[in-house]
């Protein structure tokens, strides 16, 4: 292990290439994540805007979060994140798309849900973390797609979820296995908080 940090780890793998040569590949391990396209009856999606230090900007995103609780299903995580980040609960859930964010070097995979039949709920207090100053906004789905095409929404997870929702994709059942979900970090950590070292 080259690095073991709360939300990522880095390992070096030795890989036999198709031509028979051997190469070293550094792989960023990740816990995996979920995101939610929360779509109301008026055809609006709930977007959140938060500061992302890696790019030094506030980005428009979908409510999302890490699969960082041992034993938590993807749907349980999505319900928790929707409440924590957007102050919403949903009666209807489906799987829109599963994506691998940067397969050239990182095993992060994200399950993107669609949530409908929404109601407002209380958000838990977040006085000291990055969600404390998060902005929430309802945006018509078509306007959100226009924001993607104008380069105003650049988070890849949000782009994939919004375009899938706008296309009218038929959601898959939430029981469909998330076969891409990373397991290496979670298996090494005793939990229940998988970010704890």
Q: What does this protein structure show overall?
A:
Keywords: Hydrolase. Residues 29-161 form the Nudix hydrolase domain. One of its GO terms (biological process) is ribose phosphate metabolic process. It is a single chain. With 197 residues, the protein is an alpha+beta fold. It has 2 domains: 1-30, no CATH class; 32-176, Nucleoside Triphosphate Pyrophosphohydrolase. The chain has 4 helices and 10 strands; from the N terminus they run E-E-E-E-E-E-E-H-E-E-E-H-H-H. The strands form 3 sheets. A 4-stranded mixed sheet has the order 7-4-9-8, with helices on both faces. Helix 2 crosses helix 3. The radius of gyration is 18 Å and the shape is globular.
Number of strands: 10
Ends distance: 14 Å
Tell me, what's the shape?
A: globular
Indicate how many domains the architecture comprises.
2
CATH architecture of the largest domain: Alpha-Beta Complex
H/E order of the elements?
EEEEEEEHEEEHHH
Mean pLDDT: 95
Residue share in helices? 10-25%
Oligomer: single chain
**Spatial arrangement of strands, main beta sheet:** 7-4-9-8
* Sheet with the most strands, sense and barrel status: 4 strands, mixed
What do we call the CATH homologous superfamily of the largest domain?
A: Nucleoside Triphosphate Pyrophosphohydrolase
Radius of gyration (CA) equals 18 Å
Domain Nudix hydrolase: 29-161
GO biological process, one term: nucleoside phosphate metabolic process
GO molecular function: hydrolase activity
Protein name: NUDIX hydrolase
């Amino acid at each position: 292990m080259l690095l073991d940090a709360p939300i990522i780890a880095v390992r070096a793998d030795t890989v036999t290439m198709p031509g028979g040569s051997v190469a070293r590949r550094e792989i960023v391990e990740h816990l995996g994540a979920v995101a939610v396209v929360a779509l109301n009856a008026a055809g609006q999606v709930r977007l959140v805007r938060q500061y992302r230090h890696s790019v030094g900007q506030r980005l428009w995103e979908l409510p999302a979060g890490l699969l960082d609780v041992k034993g938590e299903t993807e749907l349980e995580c999505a319900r928790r994140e929707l409440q924590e980040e957007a102050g919403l609960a949903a009666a209807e859930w489906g799987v829109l798309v599963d994506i691998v964010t940067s397969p050239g070097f990182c095993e992060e995979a994200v399950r993107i849900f669609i949530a409908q039949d929404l109601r407002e709920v209380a958000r838990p207090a977040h006085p000291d973390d990055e969600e404390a100053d998060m902005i929430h906004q309802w945006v018509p789905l078509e306007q959100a797609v226009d924001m993607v095409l104008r380069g105003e929404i650049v988070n890849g997870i949000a782009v994939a979820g919004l375009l899938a929702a706008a296309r009218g994709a038929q959601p898959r059942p939430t029981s469909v296995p998330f076969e891409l979900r990373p397991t290496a970090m979670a298996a090494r950590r005793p939990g229940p908080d998988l970010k704890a070292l």
